[in-house]
């Protein structure tokens, strides 16, 4: 991670700065169970842009409004991605838990302008080479293998044995990693730790291990290219260096794995707990697509994303944003903004949600389509194999992971008729 010793010295925060007294700490039980209520309360008190405190009481702004998130993500000249602009670097400890998210790396995530277009173009072309029908077949095969591992027991905890494992294996398959190796399993676990650490985990160390394994993969594919995302990135005429490819592959894998796992699990939760779906699902699953879309609106897997950094002093949502201030994109809050849903009714037929972000730095096409293939195949295969699947606990006993960034269940225990096939 960069030391950022050349960052500007902090000054006493003005009244309009997120460091002032009414800032809201991003954390606590409200995020674990009912973040939507917290976002509503913050919107009532602060408006569309709220002063917040990150880990260690580091000040930032949380952008809650749908129009404001669209504005920030659509104006890179005002709100840029290079985190070296941050005016708080002198206050950031070396072991800060959010460093994997904001510590500058030479990856597509932090590039801007023509360089971002070049790097994102390589990713887009590499992902366009993925045959969606072949991906669906591979996901179905992975799902069948995973389900066979627990089908005979009549019970399972789906977050751990299914929802997390399927997209991890699928995205690593797309990248050309060998399947069913201990080395791949370790990589999957390190990805989880670096993105959504539990108590006692070391996310920075896990991130470094991920980087080392992906560097090894790039070296292997440069020597023996194949029909995979990694090889297509290596062979692209843009001529990315190995370091650039490693960084961008990590971004692709991380963006595909954890959010898709939570999308799968959140959708299964909705299908198993909401009577609107329960009746229809068993009769042909016509509503799986509706459930997938509704989850993106109401329980979007990436609820907050850090972030953007102000290029110069500017106004947003009635706030004075200072040069170098950090803005956290409140994707979940924006998706449920009462300005766009005045009757509090979210329609599954509408796909204008911000779950894949917006603007130049949104998930590159066709990444959302590939994520949809993974999630839809996972849910449909599970329901076909285990048609009498039910929750093993009361709905009220389901708990959400205590993360302000990801929206996902701690566990999803289910019961079903044991099956030998």
TrEMBL record:
Region annotated Disordered, chain positions: 1-21
CDD domains: CYP_unk (cd20623)
UniProt-listed InterPro entries: Cyt_P450_B (IPR002397), Cyt_P450_sf (IPR036396)
SUPFAM superfamilies: Cytochrome P450
Sequence similarity: Belongs to the cytochrome P450 family.
Protein name, per record: Cytochrome P450
Source organism of the structure: Streptomyces pyxinicus
Lineage: Bacteria, Bacillati, Actinomycetota, Actinomycetes, Kitasatosporales
